[in-house]
Amino acid sequence: MARSDGRTPDQLRPVTITRNWLAHAEGSVLVEFGGTKVLCAATVESGVPRWRKGSGLGWVTAEYAMLPRATNTRGDRESVRGKIGGRTHEISRLIGRSLRACVDYKALGENSIILDCDVLQADGGTRTAAITGAYVALVDAVSWMRKKRMCPGDPLVDSVAAVSVGIVGNTPLLDLCYVEDVKAGTDMNVVMTGKGAFVEVQGTAEGAPFDRDTLDELLDLAAAGCAQLTELQKIALA
């Protein structure tokens, strides 16, 4: 099928990873998946949450938010509403889980790294862009820690990247933009390590249920996309 931006079904949007975007954060990245732009900032803190104290283990967590005009209509700031939405909680937890999959807590020592992922502009795939960019910010934060001799060892045991896939008009597509996402009969977000292992698969049939062959096809498409994103992360970090 012809895509709105002229891509082939198995083609990523143009991806840009710009490091050191902020002056003060221990690691920061502006990641762009086409029209989606997410600012990822890593903060290093000495110490861990109360329930982790005395364990000798570190902690990595994440927070996700969207600016009011990241979309085509204004959304209220959740801080003004006084309540964090369910979607925001879900995506924050997803990003945290994804990043923790590549971390050796013992080598991190009793230190914490917080990844703040703020969507500046949304055009589909904000959570997958956030995970992909946050990993690069995490690497820079760990490098900062090691220069300060805060880590007993190297906490990073692998890389992690994420991409969306879906079925639009009976065609499996990689890295859906917004106009494709809203039309998708099946929508899936896939998180993978650089070694090709799955961290998380979130898939939903918005219309007709999908069969095992379709699932395998989508996972193959996502695996190829994550492999490309892993190479782009390596280039950005070189």
Topology:
Layout: E1 15-19, E2 27-33, E3 36-46, E4 59-66, H1 78-81, H2 86-100, H3 105-108, E5 111-121, H4 126-147, E6 160-168, E7 171-174, H5 178-181, E8 186-193, E9 198-205, H6 212-237
Parallel strand pairs: 4-5
Antiparallel strand pairs: 1-2, 2-3, 3-5, 6-7, 6-8, 8-9
Helix pairs in contact: 2-4, 4-6
Describe the structure.
The chain has 238 residues and is an alpha+beta fold. 32% of the residues lie in helices and 30% in strands. It has six helices and nine strands; from the N terminus they run ββββαααβαββαββα. A five-stranded mixed β-sheet has the order 1-2-3-5-4. A four-stranded antiparallel β-sheet has the order 7-6-8-9, with helices on both faces. α4 (126-147) runs parallel beside α6 (212-237). The longest helix has 26 residues, at 212-237. The model has no long low-confidence stretch (mean pLDDT 95).
